[in-house]
Amino acid sequence: MPTTKGLNFYLEDRNLQFLCESVMGPEVFERARPHLTTLGEIAGGELDELAALADRNPPVLRAWDERGRRVDEVVRHPAYRRMEEIAFGQFGLAAMAHRPGVLGWPERVPQVVKYALSYLFAQSEFGLLCPVNMTDSCARMLGVFGSEELQARYLPHLTATDPDALWQGTQWMTERTGGSDVGASATVARRGPDGRWRLWGDKWFTSVANAELALTLARPEGAPDGTRGLAMFLVPKRLPDGSKNAWTINRLKDKLGSRSMATGEVTYAGAVAYVVGELGSGFKQMMEMVNGSRLSNAMRAAGLMRRALLESLVHARQRIAFGHPLIELPLLRSNLLSMLLDAEAAVSVILNGAALLDRRDAGAADARALARVWTPLAKYWITLRARDVTAEAMNVRGGNGYVEEWVNPRLLRDAYLGAIWEGSANVVALDVQRAIVKDRGLEAVGGFITERLARVVEPAAKPWVDLVKAGLDVVALQAADWATPLPAAERELQARPVADTLYHLLASALLLAEGQALREQGKGFRKLLAAGLYLRRWLEPRGSASPPFTARQIEWLEPMAEWRAIDASALADVEA
User: Is pLDDT at 576 greater than 70 in this prediction?
Assistant: First the structure.
C-alpha cells in the first residue's frame, strides 16, 4: 500500500518552495531554506510517528498528589513531550518572533518564516500548534499591553527555548453562556484590601489546560454589562512564592480531534490576577489576540489540506486497480485537481498574510487595515474547505483511509475544529462584514487585489483578470448596500456569500500574479493555468449539471503537481 512515510514534506512541495522564495525575498529565503528542509524531513518522519502516538494517548488529569494535595497536573504522553521539544526548543516556533538568536537569526525571525515552518509542522501535528500559537500570542499581548513589571517577570519564560525555563501561555474566554456571546461573561474580578485582584468564575473551554499562564477576561465589580465592562487579566498557575494559585481544573474534554492537546474546564476560586492594559479595554485587547490567532488557525487548516493532497497523490499514482494506476481515472483526477487548486490557493493566502503581519509590525500605513480583513477572511474559508479536502482524501484512499493506522482519520478530525476555534464560520463571516463596514476593509483588500492584477500582463490571462475585476465590482455594490438602512436580517444573510466571493477574488489575484512571475522567469504557464482553473472552479458561472473541469483539463493534473512546463495552449483551452 503506497505511503508518504519518510518523504521530506518541504522538498516534495515545489509550490511551497516557489512561494517561500517569492514572498520572503532571496536573502531571507536563503537563511530560512536549511530550516525548512530540516523540518520537512522531521515532519515526514519522526514528527508524524510521534503525532500518531500522542493522538492515541491523550493527556490525563492528575488532580491530587499522593499526599492529598490539589495539584491539577496535566500529564502528557512522552511522545507529546518530545513534540514540545521540537516545536518550542529545536525550532523555537513560539519565541522566534519576539527575540533575536532563534535558529541563529541575527534579529527576530520574520513572521512569514514562522508561518512557513509551522505550515510544515501542521502537516503532521495539528494540536500542539495551539499551545505554540497561544504562547506566542501571550508574549505579544504582554509586550504590547503589559506593565514593565509583568514583562520582566513573565516574558523571559514565554519566549524561552530551554524546556526547563519555558512557560506555556494561553487565553481563556469561553464560559457556559457560550463562546460567541463574550459580553455575557460571568467571571467576576474583585480587588482586595491588599490591592491585588482576585477572580471568581468558570471557564468552560480552556485550551492548553496545562499552561502556566492564562490571559483571561473578567468583569470588575461595578463595571458595566456587555463587552465594555470586561478587563484582561494575566492569571499565573503559580504565584511568585511558588504556591499554587486558586484555580482548579475540573476535568479534561474528550474531543473529536486535537486529542494530543489538553482542553479542560477551569474554575477560578479567588485566583490572583494581574491587569493587562487599560481596565476598560479588555475585550478590545483580547480580540486583537483572537484576530491574530485566526491566521494561525487558517495556516493549520492549510497544512491539513496539503497533507491530504500529498497522501492522495502518492496513493493514486501507485495504487493499481483494474490494471491501471488510480490517477488515470477521470473522476478521480478531477477530484485531485480540485484539491490541488484549493491547497495552493490556501498556502498563498497564508504566506502573503504572514508577510502582511511583518509589514504591519514594521509600521506600514496600509497594513493594519488590510490585516484586519485578511485574517478573518482566511480563517473563514480555509478552515471550512479543509473539512471537504480531508474528507475527499479519505475517499481517495478508500477503506484504508477510514482505518486509524493511516493518517486520514486524524486529518479529518482535526479539520473539523478549525471552523469552530476562534469563532464559528458564521461569527467570522460577520466579522469580515464588520471589517468592511467599519474598518474600510474592502477598500484595503480591493486595493491589494487591484495592485496584484496590474502585474498580470500575459495576454492569454486578460479574461481572468477581467473576471476578478468584475467580481470585485459586484462585492463593492453589495457592500454599498450595507451602508444604507438595509434590514439587519438581510444584511446578516449576505455575510457568508460575500466572504466566499471575496476570498476567491483574493486567492485568484495572488495565483494570477504568481503565474505572471513564473512566466517571466521562463518557467511556463503552469501557475497561470492553476489560476484559470481556480476561477473556473469557484467564480465562473456554469450550469448545475456541468462538471468543474473538462477531460483535457484533468489531463494536466500531473504536470501541475510535478511543476512541469505547460504551454500557452492550455490557457486558451480554459478560456474557450
Answer: no
Domain's final residue, options 243, 261, 280:
280
Residue 117: which of 138, 140, 133, 100 has the closest Cα? 133
Is residue 195 exposed (0-12), middle (13-18) or buried (19+ Cβ within 10 Å)? exposed
Q: Which three cell numbers stand for residue 170?
A: 494561553
Would you say residue 178 lies in a domain? yes
Does residue 179 surpass a pLDDT of 80?
A: no
Whether residue 131 contacts residue 211, with contact meaning beta carbons closer than 8 Å, is answered with yes
> Which of 280, 305, 327 marks a domain boundary?
280
Number of domains in the chain: 2
Beta bridge partners of 197: 191, 273
The neighbour count for residue 106, using CB atoms within 10 Å, is 8
Could you identify the residue written with the cell 480583513? 373
Domain of residue 492 covers: 440-575
Distance CA 294, CA 431 (A): 12
CATH code at position 228: 2.40.110.20
CA 84 to chain centre: 19
Tens of pLDDT, residues 66-87: 999 999 999 999 999 999 999 9
Contact 515, 563 (CB under 8 A): no
Q: Note the pTM of the prediction, 2 decimals.
A: 0.97
For residue 333, give the nearest of 352, 310, 317 by alpha carbon: 317
Asked whether residue 391 is domain-assigned, the answer is no
**In a domain? residue 217:** yes
Give the integer Cα–Cα distance in Å for 531 and 539. 11
How far, in Å, are 217, 278, 487, 498 from residue 175 at the CA level? 10, 22, 31, 30
Strand partners, 274: 234
The answer as to whether 190 is a domain residue is: yes
Alpha-carbon gap, residue 20 to 110, rounded angstroms: 12
Q: Looking at residue 543, what is its pLDDT? A: 67
